[in-house]
Specification:
It is a single chain. The chain folds into two domains: 125 residues, no CATH class; 122 residues, no CATH class. 64% of the residues lie in helices and 0% in strands. It is built from nine helices and no strands. InterPro entries: Wax_synthase (IPR044851), Wax_synthase_dom (IPR032805).
Length: 300
């Protein structure tokens, strides 16, 4: 609902009609306009799409490849989720929630531990999005009779990013990019230039994530949720300064180390907010069907 509200805001400001490239089914077009986040096949979309690696000439083959992806990512997701929960089986591993920071440890061990938890949590989020998208892909092709080209990859190997700018603009999923930029980035660019545009874009991203956290019914944590994305914006701005001063983009293995350090360091804020509200303790797969539980036993 939040996404539709943000998209509706952009629609009200559009100076040209929205047109779809091919297809005349009014019901499907209306549904795709309202629910489709990347605007694939529409003249308004400016989202970067990852290159396709699956065969698109045959729907059957494409669906089989997607089902294979599901068979891979579901157990990996469950194993990673179990691993994260195992660090706090009686605290943030439950729906009661808790902090990922262990005050009984020295600062070095405390933040090393929390950063590792955050890293694993990032992998969990990656797998969860892949699973959701794969399910939607199969539904779109089998039930709605859509073409495989309407379901390009949602990620572009984010672990290969060599800068924060590349990570957020091309390699992480681009589901909300249009209205993040349109609602937050464009107005702030007019008022404060590029710096305002970058921070405005990431502010709307943080706001959307905070609304999702608030939707769990345990309040919000705007400082951590919005703060994480604002710091991502500052990181992108720093990369712009670097390019302006040196004449070179942030890139290569040094850029990769920089990206990982900045991203994982501030990710502690985001993951701790999720942990405190009980999100990490959510039950996605019943314990009776969880392979890690059968192998290592229940967490509590």
């Amino acid at each position: 609902m939040t996404a539709i509200a943000l998209k509706s805001t952009l629609w009200s400001l559009s100076i040209k009609p929205f047109k779809r490239k091919g297809g005349t089914n009014l019901l499907l077009n209306a549904s795709d306009l309202a629910l489709g986040l990347r605007g694939i096949g529409w003249n308004w979309s400016q989202v970067h799409l990852a290159p396709e690696t699956r065969p698109t000439s045959s729907k059957t083959t494409f669906v089989l490849w997607t089902l294979a992806s599901l068979c891979l990512h579901i157990p990996v997701f469950d194993a990673l989720h179990y691993a994260v929960q195992s660090f706090g089986p009686t605290t943030f591993g439950t729906i009661n929630g808790g902090s990922i920071f262990d005050d009984t440890l020295s600062p070095l061990l405390r933040y090393s531990r929390s950063t590792f938890i955050s890293f694993l949590s990032g992998l969990v989020i990656y797998c969860a999005i892949r699973i959701t998208y794969d399910v939607a892909t199969v539904f779109g092709i089998v039930v709605l009779r859509q073409h495989p080209t309407q379901w390009p990859p949602i990620f572009n190997s984010p672990w290969r990013a060599t800068s924060l700018s590349q990570f957020w603009s091309k390699r992480w999923h681009q589901l909300f990019r249009d209205f993040f930029v349109g609602v937050g980035g464009v107005p702030m660019t007019y008022m404060f230039g590029r710096i305002g545009g970058v921070l405005g874009t990431f502010f709307i991203s943080g706001l959307l994530h905070d609304v999702g956290l608030w939707g769990m019914g345990k309040g919000s944590d705007a400082v951590c949720m919005i703060g994480f994305f604002i710091m991502m914006g500052f990181g992108v701005i720093l990369e712009g300064f670097w390019r302006k001063v040196t004449g070179h983009r942030v890139d290569g293995w040094i850029g990769w180390i920089w990206m990982c350090t900045w991203l994982l360091g501030w990710l502690n804020l985001l993951v701790n907010a999720w942990a405190a509200k009980g999100l990490i303790g959510s039950l996605f797969i019943p314990d009776a069907q969880r392979l890690p539980v059968k192998i290592f036993g229940p967490l509590s």
